[in-house]
Each structure stands twice: as C-alpha cells, then as structure tokens.
Amino acid sequence: MIPAPFDYYAPNSLAEALTLLQQHGDDAKILAGGHSLLPAMKLRLASPAILIDINKISELRGIKVNGTVEIGALTTWSAIEQDAALAKACPVMAEAVSLIGDIQVRNRGTIGGSLAHADPAADMPAVVLALDAHIHVEGPNGPRTIAATDFFTDMLSTALEPGEIITSITFNSLGPGEGAAYAKFPHPASRYAIVGAAAYVKMENGQVTACRVAITGAGPKAERQPAVEQALIGTDGNADAIAAAAAHAGEGMDMLGDIHASEEYRRAMCKVYTKRALLKAVERAR
Amino acid sequence: MTATEMKERLVGRALKRREDPKLITGHGNYLDDIKLPGMLHIALVRSPYAHAKIVSIDASKALAMPGVVAVFTGKDMLDINPMPAAWQAAGVKNYPVPPRALAVDKVALVGDPVAMVVAENRYIARDAADAVEVEYEPLPAVVDARKAVEPGAPQIHEAAPNNIVFEWECGNKAAADAAIASAEVVVKEEIINQRLIPTPMETRGSIARYDAATGEWTVWMTSQAPHVHRLLLTAFVFGVPETKLRCIAPNVGGGFGQKIFCYNDMAFTMWAARKLGRPVKFVEDRSENYKYSTHGRDHITEAELAGTRDGKITGLRVKTWANIGAYFSTVAAGIPTTLYGRIITGVYKIPAAYVHVTGAYTNTAMVDAYRGAGRPEASYLIERMVDRFAAEIGMDPAEVRRKNFIQPEDFPYDNGLGLLPYDSGNYEPALNKALEIAGYAEFRKQQAELRKQGRYLGIGISSYVEICGIAPSAWMGGQGWGAGLWESANVRVHLTGKVVVTTGSLPHGQGLETTFAQIVADELGVPIDDVEIQWGDTQGTPFGYGTYGSRSLAVGGVAIKRSVDKIKEKARKLAAHLLEANEADIVFENGRAYVRGSPDKAKTIGELAAAAAVAYNLPPGMEPFLDETSYYDPPNCTFPFGTHVSIVEVDPETGHVKLLRYIAVDDCGNQINPMIVEGQIHGGIAQGLAQALYEGAVYNEDGQLLTGTLMDYAVPTAAMVPHIETDHTVTPSPVNPLGVKGAGEAGTIASAQCVMNAIIDALAPFGVKHLQMPATPERIWKAIHGSK
C-alpha cells in the first residue's frame, strides 16, 4: 500500500531518459503505464531507488499503418484497441488487447511496458511471437532490433540490455490468405492468462503454407510451438488436421502449476486453446 | 385533497435510494477521509509466521527514525483486557481465546500484530515498521479444522486443549441414528463449505481521540454496531464507565458481517491516544484486511440423509468441523451453532435430525459472520443432500422437494432443532413459480436433446428458508449471546413539522435511509423529504444493536413504526383537545387528525406539532413536544423463504461454466421498497454464485494465505454476474406489524447450491454426484476426465 521512498524523474526526451538510465543503472526503473511496477512497489516486492517516468516522451507514442505496422512503445492498450487502421491491418491485435485486464488497465497499460516486463501470463508476448514482430530498442550503443522470437528469455527476463528502452514494435499487416487469432483462458481474479494461445496461418491454394503458434500463461515465458506449426503446414487446415496439430501444443515446455491451475491442467488447456485459436485463424485466412 | 382521498402511499413503491447520490459521486465521508489536527498514524509489525514464539522485539532502529513518535508491543498493553467473546456456543463449555490488542509472547496466524509504530504520517510509520526487528521461534502450524482437533496436532492455545473451542449438538441423535440404520436409502457425502473473504470495498480501521481533561474518548470506526462496540470496549476491554466513550461510524463502505466485530485496532488506537495525548489513526490496507480481518464459512461436514425409495426424507445426521481461526472473534461461536444447526432441515419436514459441531482453532484468520452467517452453510448442505438423494432414487429433484415441504397448515412450525417456530410460509408456490419462469419441463427435453450433441446443460433448484430479525432477547440469551437483540428508535416532530428519526440501526449500503423514510412519511402523512433519518453516533442515537442478520427492517423498522404510533396517539389526544371533541372520535389519517364524520374539521400533523412545541394550549397533564422512543423486542424471528433456479452449460473440453439463466423467487413478506429488495437480492446472489464458481481463501500447510490479494482471490465483477430474473411471492410475517421478514442475506443463502446443483446436474452423464466449491474449470475438468 505504501511504497518505500524513491526519487522520481520525468524526462522530456528519449535521449534524456537514456542518460538518466545510464547514470542510475540498476537502481532505476522505467515507469510507463505502471500497472505491474506500482503494485509491486506498493507491496514492497520491488523498491527501486529511482523511477524514470517516460510518459512525457511523446515520440514513443502512436500507431502507423503502411503495409507494415509500427506501434510506439508508450501506446496504451486502449489506443491499440480503438485504432481503425490497425483493426483492418491486423485484427488480432484488437482481439487480444480487448482481453487484457479491464478498461482502467487498458487506459494506462502500454505495449512496451508489458513486453519489457515479460510477465509469463501477459497476453502480448504470445501475440508478437505469432505475428513474428520485431522489437526496436534504443540504448547507450544506439538503436537495435530484436526479433520477438529472441526477445523473451525466461520468466520476467528479456533480451533487453541494461540501459536500453523499447521504442517501438513492428510487424507486417495481414494480407489475403492470412489469418490470426488469440484464444484466452483468463484467471477470474487477475484476468491474466492461465493459458493464452496466439495463432497465425497463411493459406495458399487451400493449403496451409505458413503457421506460427505461441502460448503464454502456461510456462515461465511465452513460447513458439514448432511441433504444432510443423504438423499443420501442408495440411488443408480442416478441423481434424487442426486438432491433430494442436495435440502437440506444450510439447517440450515447462509448465507452471499453482492453486489456480495445475501443471496437468495447463498442459491440457494448451491443446484446447491452441486448437481454438487455430480454428479461428484458418477461418479468417480462408 | 379531502380527508377521504388517500395520499399516495410510499410503502410498496420503488423509490430511488436517497442516500446514493452523495455516495456515488464521491461525497461520502468514510473513515480514511477523516483528518484530525495533530493526528498520528499507525503501522503494524505483523508476523510472517502462522505460529511462532516471539523471542525478542528490537525497535531501536525504528525509534531513531525522524517522525517516529513511539513503538509499542503487546506487553505494553497488558493493562487492558482481550477482546470480548460475546456469543459462545449455548449449553456447552466454551474455550474462548479472543485476541489481545497486540500479540503477547506468541503469534497464532500470519499477520498477527506484534508491534505498532506510531508516527507523524503513514509513510514514516510504514518505513519504520520495516525497521522493527522481531526474532521468532517458528512452531508447527495447522490450518484445517478437522486435523486441528486430531491427537498430535500443533497446540495453539494453552487454554484450549486439543484446539477445541466447543463441541455442540442439537436435534435427536438416537432418532437420527435409528432413521439412518433402518432406511431404505442412505446417501452420504463429505461437503466442504470453503473459506471466504468478505471483501467490503472499504477496509477497516479506527481513529481514537482522548481528552485528558475529561477522561473521554471519541472513536471513529468502520462499524456495523457502534453502540455494541462502545459497550464492549468500555465495560469489558478498558474497564471504564461506558459514558467515557463516544463511538461514531461515519459512512461505512460495506461490511457483509466483517464490521460487526470488536477488533484489536479499536483498542490499540484508544490505548495509544490516551498514552500519547494525540489522536491516532489506523486504516488497514487490503493485504492486512485479507490476512487479519475476519473470514467467513470454512466448514468440513460429513452428512448422511435417509429416505424411502418413493422420495420421503426420514432422517438427517450431520457432523461438522467449523474452523474458528486463530482466535475467538466476537460472535464466532454463534454462527456454526444456533444459526446453522438449528435450521439444518431447511424447508423440509424431516422427522429425525441431529447435528454435531466441533469448533476448532487453527493458524488462520478468525472466522465469524459473513453475509448469511450459518444459514448459507445449512442451506447449502440440505439442498445438496436433497439433490443427491433425488439422483440416488432417480426422482425429479423438484418432486422430492414437493414431497417433503413443510405445508402451509403446519405453520407455526417447530422443526425440533431448538428454534422458535417458523412464523409463516408457503413453499410450493415459490417453487412452482420459479420452475414456470424457467420453463422446467421444456428445459428437461432440450437438455436431453443437447446431450446427444455433446452439449452439457444443467438445471439447479434451491428452495431455502432462513432466519432473520433474530429475537427475542430472552431466547437469544439462552442461545449463548451475551446481551439482548432488540432495536430502538426515537421519532420527533419538530415545531416546523420536520420529522427527525434517530435509530440504533447502522445503515451501510442497504438503502435503509430510504426504506425507513417511506414508512415514516406514510404513517405521519408528511412528504418524504420532511423525514430525516440519523444514525451512527452513540451520542444522539438511542442504544441499538446495529445492522446485520437482515434485522434492520424487521426489528429496527418496527421500532420506528412503534415510535410513530405513539406520536400519532399523542397527536390524536392533542387534536381532540384543540377541536373540542371526544378523543375516541378523532381519526388520524393522511397526516390529519379530524372528528369522525367531519373530515374538513381537521388539524394537520404540522399544526399539531407546532401546538405541541409551543405548548400554549395543551390538555391537562400533557407534556410538550411530539417526541417518542420505542425499544422493540420481537416475539420471534422471521423466516423468509423462496426458490432459486439456475441453468448452466458446462464446456466439457475446459470445464468452464456458463450461467445461462438465474431465476430468483423470494418471499420476504411485505416489501417496503421493491427496488431495494431486488438490489439486495442481486447483490446477495452475486456473492453466493461467486462462492459456487470463483471465491475460496486458500492457506498452504504452513499457514500462508495464498489468496492474499485481489489478483488471486476472485471477487466477481459485474461482467461475471448474469442477468438475474427476479420475482416474488408475498407471505406477510405475523411476527411484526409491518409484516416484513428481511431481504439482506436471502440472495446469498439461496444461490451457492442453486448453481452447484445445476453444474452437478449438467455433469450427470459423467457420473458426477458431488463437487466441492468453488467449481473451478479445473475441478470440473478433472471430474469429467479423471486425473492422471
């Protein structure tokens, strides 16, 4: 309820934020929407000495759609959910985002903050993996781009280096023959995913020619599901083929187990939710 | 308006709640809004262990921090007594170990306070609490009530051997044993009524101010019963005259029972305010509320129900372990005894029933009344067992209910379990109405069809009866309750004709301000806006027992009605004098007193109030002013009833439950404000279906609360509650002149088993006979698929 004392900075530019981050090193935390950080601070699970509030850096905010999609790291969930051009270019984003938290959470929470925090039960990690997105960062050594597949390294851990800030996320718009979907089993209290499955498929001449599936919530980090993807590619994407492919979901993954869902149950739900996401993705691709 | 024209009656009308605009626009005045000059703030040092000896406490680092005024431990407060154990189980030995202001020598639950930091602001207090060093010697813990009373379990209190708080029974054991031994059919089930956390939107707290010159305290408290708290804190905890304490409950943001009890913070704020000579404030955060304020339910029960193959129930035998938590909370023992065992047979005529309850201490938060308090546990148990029995003999569960209902001609009905007789009831019309709304027969056909397609729908029935307006005082004394349970009201009609009502009830969300004003406005024939209802301050309101147990209308409302009746009687006498008529010829109607047959020769209540107030011309011997007080002690409890029906669909792949329909037919006697009744039913159902589907407090074996935040403990949101179809029957209570029964808890009492019965009905093709709550997707999935 009452956080430990901290110092607070609100830089006006990215350069200023990067300088502050370099000055204070591990003592500093970036504050974006604050929906994970502030509760942790109030429960004194986190006690950073310095908060660097990046909300004044307007260059980090906004959505551009032009064949590819670029979403600024500070863009809120509600801005993503309500963007008409994005809804056309990549409807799965709005679908997934509408399932995050509640309206208040979506009004504050940001896509960059969520990806950087890498909560194992957050929704967006699965979506960016399925969309094969790229995460753009800026740091002491200048900008670089990290593929989503390389980004999530472990529970609450990412490929971000100390001193780096996410600036934007990019991915391709979906074209004809492409479809994506997100299916989620939310926790009744937190609304985080107990299991969330994101699926992307490309259909050409009635055949699945590309497929990417990622699962969040079930394990310590969001993960692609190569066995599912391989099993579906080359089929015609009928319900039986999807069920057979989805049966591989969770293979090789460490499963979390807690009072809300055991490992056994999460493993079973990976298959069900993967199947449900794929059914919708194929239908949209046709 | 002529006297013969009736003023439009307000009773029975769905008036909007007049208390709401202030509260829902952020203009309420809650405890944490109160800031007194010079006020200090408290942060507690709480035990991280469920059970441990306190070896040492070193506050030197905390005391050295700027802004820290003092650090106190339990040993500093040995000059005050522990909290009172006000309701003990009746007729048996109790081993009450209530909490002290702060723990002394050992802790018995995670969150047990061992020291308090008093500082200039809340931030400093919180930082300093982290700097207090406490050395503990951890002891083994026990969290399960049945395990706690087994030989070899960790012993929590020396004064309670084997962790037993009480062993209590009711009914006829020999008859129940014989009925079960000789029955054609016996169904047996272990039924767990899980632990729940009440979660009022406003957490609890206290602010105390002490005036050294007069030796008087004022305490602001989040309280459902400030008069009771005043009595307990002075006479029992501090041993000072009751007159030395004024208790004020400002706006109270929900209680659900959790704010009935006398808590340690009331005592330690008073103690510190006296010691330091400055006002002190303590407000829980949500984590503290979850760890330390009272929880509800937590029963483990072995139940056996006996009957005939043709559906007659012949016997019921129940053995329950009730978890009381680490200490004895104020009325903890009354809930799983009188309010549970004595109503265990519900709406059915069961010739032989017996209940045995063991209350047990465990290393968990105290358990006490939570919305429904004992009656949801009883109702859940009997309604699950009746469904279980119906399934066993292959009879429609609605038919089994009809066969065993107490019949209208049986009232007043003595259930043989030590209650006063059920006042009135007519159970079958409510059942029939609910089934008709649900389209029961049609649903059964649809259900069979859909099962062939692999879709699993179920319907659940819950016919309930409960106990409201618990009274009379003399009977409650025999139930182990240490005081009375009447209610009070004062009504004054001022010179200007404005009516002021002060009540010992403590409205905190029930809409009572509106309900009470409707009654008074009708009875006195004045505009409702001329009626002011005041409560919450022990200075300025007559003693009352507070608001809980759905008692504030059936007891508190009747006290108001009786005061108004006295006012009317005096007004009639005064009118006779002023109109120079015979008192026997004066009629009081629609706010006017007139001579029978001459309605135009009248005195209005305003004129009479003014005449009484100025006192220029009163009949001989009449005192000035229209000002009357009543203390109403009802002759019996009231017994609301009804039937709820729900329809669910279970997703067999995931175990998710979708509530397709929820139908509630309730009978709370006469309704003063149907919209408020409906609102109470809605809220109650939300809490009951949440018990069935979502909520459950979980401790690990070490006594750590695993559901300690709102991220883990699933309180339902609006999106999780279905559209509720409400209807009612009206069977007025003969107990009181308003014919009302109470509606605050009925929704909760009826709904958990309604949803569970529907889920278990849906799962019948999988051979599922019972499931424990909450029916989480995983639990249902495992029931369908089995566990590897």
Description:
The complex is a heterodimer of chains A (286) and B (788). Chain A is of the alpha+beta class and 286 residues long. Chain A is built from twelve helices and 14 strands. In chain A, the strands form four sheets. Chain A has a five-stranded antiparallel β-sheet with strand order 4-5-10-6-7. In chain A, a hairpin with a 2-residue loop joins strand 12 and strand 13 (207-216). Chain B is of the alpha+beta class. Chain B has three domains: 20-27 and 486-632, 2-Layer Sandwich (Aldehyde Oxidoreductase, domain 4), CATH 3.30.365; 34-139 and 203-253 and 259-292, Alpha-Beta Complex (Aldehyde Oxidoreductase, domain 3), CATH 3.90.1170; 296-471 and 636-785, Aldehyde oxidase/xanthine dehydrogenase, molybdopterin binding domain (Aldehyde Oxidoreductase, domain 4), CATH 3.30.365.10. In chain B, the strands form six sheets. Chain B has a seven-stranded mixed β-sheet. In chain B, strands 7-15-14-13-8 form a five-stranded mixed β-sheet. A four-stranded mixed β-sheet of chain B has the order 16-24-25-26, with helices on both faces. In chain B, a hairpin with a 5-residue loop joins strand 17 and strand 18. In chain B, helix 17 packs across helix 18 (746-762). The mean pLDDT of chain B is 97. At the A-B interface, helix 12 of A face helix 3 and helix 19 of B.
Nutshell version of this structure?
Chain A is α+β, with helices and mostly antiparallel strands and 286 residues long. Chain A has helices spanning 14-24, 37-42, 77-81, 84-89, 91-97, 103-108, 111-117, 124-130, 148-151, 226-232, 239-246, 263-285; strands at residues 7-9, 28-31, 50-53, 63-66, 68-72, 134-139, 142-147, 152-154, 157-158, 165-172, 178-186, 193-204, 207-216, 223-224.
